[in-house]
Amino acid sequence: MTDHSSWESILASILKEFGCQTGTIHQSNAEKNLNLVCQIGVPDSLLDKISLITFGKGIAGVAAESRQPVELCNLQLDLGGVAKSNARQTGVSGSIAVPIFTIENDQVIGTLGIGKYAPYEFTAAEKLRLADHAQKLAKLFAHKHA
Q1: Dihedral (C-alpha) 43, 48, 51, 57: value to the nearest 10 degrees?
Q2: 97 secondary structure, DSSP code
Q3: Which of 3, 64, 89, 101 is the most buried (most CB within 10 A)?
């Protein structure tokens, strides 16, 4: 169930639930980098920039390093000191990335990021739902390596 089309299907479902137009799922490696598992809505011109992200760099990398959700209400106006300037090329305004933890919840094994074209501040309830989706992804990561 974890081939590329399955990951895309899962991500598409999450995007639909949150009314988002773009999304990414990254998985971490031993070198503290995030490898792109799948994406929806990211311009082709940015794929090389998001295919490998270092912990601490960009929205996904900061979420992974800090072990906390990272949100920008309007990426087009304010990079929040986190996002890279080329992130504006996505056309996304409201965005959030959450870490994906191992099932034991002690190690970051990836990130889940979603975004809307309109400025948007995600509610506490939405952040909890997104974290729930991240937990489900952790189980799929574990199954993939079993």
Answers
A1: -100
A2: E
A3: 64
